[in-house]
Inverse folding.
């Protein structure tokens, strides 16, 4: 396990983007696992800049996002598809057919989940998975007490997660209570993992994830067992370590 403590959000974002960029430079057809939320926004901005400056080429890169809300269409501004297009994909030269997110509107969710796993496998598996961490220790939308062996599946979001996500919606009622998420097993299958965390609100959960006991009550604690895991956390998020 590598733990890189940096000064602030900007430094975290730059370092993360550098790692993703080297992954792509060394292997132009890399398969990336991507996250949404506030944390990776700065990383996406830096990667966009690297692309604009001609340093990174996304032509052969494939991406698989961790999760998507159940019941939200791609065109819904709150969907993760929309987020990824707005904040990253529309600014770089990734090919549309290389972008993958679970389809939150799929008629047969079970089939959608099985197919998502198959697509990851067909792409050769994930080379580098980017993760944020929820205040309750969730990674993807694997909430506390979900089985570690889970693969892509439909999850019921925690009350706390619904509340935390409500900042992006007009009211709490509008926040979806379900999502399709890669499972812990899917995430642990990635060859390399990069978890990013910034700010004091993440300090306690970062401590539990890195130093605490490995338990499904803190889903991120399983990452202690991954052979190639790097945490980039700023001073505030590292303040309990
Ligand atoms: C997002 C995801 C979530 C977030 C987590 C942290 O695709 O899977 O696990 O990474 O909720 O969110 P932020 O970065 O907004 O604090």
């Amino acid at each position: 396990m590598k733990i890189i403590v940096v000064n602030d959000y900007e430094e975290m974002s730059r370092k993360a983007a550098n790692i993703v960029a080297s992954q792509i430079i060394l292997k132009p057809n890399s398969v990336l696992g991507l996250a949404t939320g506030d944390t990776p926004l700065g990383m996406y901005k830096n990667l966009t800049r690297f692309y604009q400056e001609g340093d990174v080429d996304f032509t052969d890169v494939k991406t698989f996002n961790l999760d998507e809300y159940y019941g939200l269409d791609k065109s819904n501004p709150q969907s993760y598809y929309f987020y990824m297009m707005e904040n990253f994909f529309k600014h770089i030269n990734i090919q549309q057919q290389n972008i993958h997110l679970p389809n939150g509107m799929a008629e047969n969710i079970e089939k959608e989940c099985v197919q998502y796993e198959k697509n990851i496998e067909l792409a050769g598996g994930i080379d580098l998975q980017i993760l944020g961490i929820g205040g309750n220790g969730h990674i993807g939308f694997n909430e506390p007490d979900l089985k570690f062996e889970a693969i892509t599946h439909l999850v019921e979001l925690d009350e706390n997660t619904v509340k935390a996500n409500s900042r992006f919606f007009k009211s709490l009622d509008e926040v979806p209570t379900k999502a399709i998420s890669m499972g812990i097993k899917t995430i642990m299958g990635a060859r390399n993992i990069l978890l990013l965390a910034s700010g004091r609100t993440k300090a306690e959960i970062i401590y539990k994830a890195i130093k605490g006991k490995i338990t499904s009550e803190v889903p991120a604690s399983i990452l202690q067992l991954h052979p190639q895991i790097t945490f980039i956390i700023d001073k505030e998020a590292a303040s309990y370590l």
In short: The two ends are 14 Å apart (CA to CA).
